[in-house]
């Protein structure tokens, strides 16, 4: 038989958990002040994963993030001194979303090997796995969290990394060990005084991690356009998508962009966000072995331009995460898209100080 005291314990526990989460967010050091001489493009050389060639056993290009920046610098639209370097997310930062039990599970190399889908990692000492795999991921998490602050301050921000949309509070998978999307949104709720966030997830795969995390949170509206015939086949998480567009393998550029136009119109009519989190995976590219869609490189640039225009027309800050993409060409495609956004005046890669 349930007593009055036991029935009241649940909201009390929930209240205590919310207070603890808030205190962790308020005490975090990740929201650094960024000088105006920098542009809101976030990257660290620590993002890139390389150890003994084992990273090549997964189709993901784990040097993609650095190659994006090198392409931008080579094209003369950016220089290293104006890129923002984030801090590493600490254990307390990660506990804002993740449980102690989940974080402890990452002390098992076997667990990490399953999450990142590279079986030989299971036999490596965990100290090496922490340094060579999880530390780069934690730096990218720090970048995603800082990107929300910069987006609110500058109107836009790009984390040249992040977008680990298969990870939820209690479970990693699909090369995603930390839930950076959920984390950056919870930080934004507390530190940026906002209460309405739209996730536009255009990676080829369903974003089941953030969908599980925000399943009962009406402050978050999720638009997810994905190939329904590929990983993760998470039917439970699909129930929590506010607006889903399920594509078939082989969907081509024109059809993809038509579906996107319709979806953005519906989303704009249904929800009025104060921040857009854009998960801009390039695994929609024709030839990507995992995404299985047939969108051209030019189609990716048009897609990104449409999402940035959607936010600009509504005067809503937007942060972009680069997420999935399993071909070597992805880095160049992302760099070209960023250059296109700059050329269309949807982002400004010139700092205010340089313009004076």
TrEMBL record:
Reactions accelerated catalytically? N(6)-acetyl-L-lysyl-[histone] + H2O = L-lysyl-[histone] + acetate
Write down the InterPro entries for this protein, in alphabetical order. HDAC_classIV, HDACs, His_deacetylse_dom, His_deacetylse_dom_sf, Ureohydrolase_dom_sf
Any GO MF annotation of the entry:
histone deacetylase activity, hydrolytic mechanism
The EC number on file is 3.5.1.98
A single GO CC term, please? histone deacetylase complex
Keyword Nucleus, does the record have it? yes
Q: Which UniProt keywords apply?
A: Chromatin regulator, Hydrolase, Nucleus, Repressor, Transcription, Transcription regulation
Where in or outside the cell is it found? Nucleus
Swiss-Prot/TrEMBL cofactor(s): Zn(2+)
The alphabetized list of GO BP terms reads: epigenetic regulation of gene expression
> Histone deacetylase domain spans which residues?
58-339
Q: Please name the Pfam families in this protein's record.
A: Hist_deacetyl
| Biological role stated in the UniProt entry | Responsible for the deacetylation of lysine residues on the N-terminal part of the core histones (H2A, H2B, H3 and H4). Histone deacetylation gives a tag for epigenetic repression and plays an important role in transcriptional regulation, cell cycle progression and developmental events. Histone deacetylases act via the formation of large multiprotein complexes.
- Provide the protein name: histone deacetylase
User: From which source organism is this entry?
Assistant: Phoenix dactylifera (Date palm)
């Amino acid at each position: 038989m349930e007593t009055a005291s036991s029935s009241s314990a649940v909201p009390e526990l929930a209240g205590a958990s919310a207070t603890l989460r808030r205190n962790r967010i308020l005490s975090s050091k990740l929201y650094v002040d960024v000088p105006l001489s920098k542009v809101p493009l976030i990257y660290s050389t620590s993002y890139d994963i390389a150890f003994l060639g084992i990273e090549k056993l997964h189709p993901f290009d784990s040097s993609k993030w650095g190659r994006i920046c090198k392409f931008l610098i080579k094209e003369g639209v950016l220089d290293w001194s104006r890129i923002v370097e984030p801090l590493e997310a600490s254990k307390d930062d990660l506990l804002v979303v993740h449980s102690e039990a989940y974080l402890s599970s990452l002390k098992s190399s076997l667990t990490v090997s399953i999450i990142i889908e590279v079986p030989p990692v299971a036999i490596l000492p965990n100290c090496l796995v922490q340094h060579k795999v999880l530390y780069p991921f934690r730096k990218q998490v720090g970048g995603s969290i800082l990107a929300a602050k910069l987006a609110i301050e500058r109107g836009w921000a790009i984390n040249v990394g992040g977008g680990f949309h298969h990870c939820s509070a209690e479970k990693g998978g699909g090369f995603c060990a930390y839930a950076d999307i959920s984390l950056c949104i919870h930080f934004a709720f507390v530190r940026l005084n906002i209460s309405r966030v739209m996730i536009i997830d255009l990676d080829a795969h369903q974003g089941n991690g953030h969908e599980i995390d925000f399943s009962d949170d009406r402050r978050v509206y999720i638009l997810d356009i994905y190939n329904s015939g590929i990983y993760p086949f998470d039917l439970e998480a699909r129930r929590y998508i506010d607006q889903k567009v399920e594509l078939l393998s082989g969907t081509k550029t024109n059809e993809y962009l038509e579906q996107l136009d319709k979806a953005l119109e519906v989303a704009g009519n249904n929800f009025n966000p104060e921040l857009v989190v854009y998960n801009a995976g390039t695994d929609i590219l024709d030839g990507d072995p995992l995404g299985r869609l047939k969108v051209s490189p030019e189609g990716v640039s048009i897609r990104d331009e449409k999402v940035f225009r959607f936010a600009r027309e509504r005067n809503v800050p937007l942060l972009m995460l680069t997420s999935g993409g399993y071909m070597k060409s992805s880095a160049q495609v992302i760099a070209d898209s960023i250059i296109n956004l700059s050329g269309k005046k949807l982002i400004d890669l010139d700092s205010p100080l340089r313009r004076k």
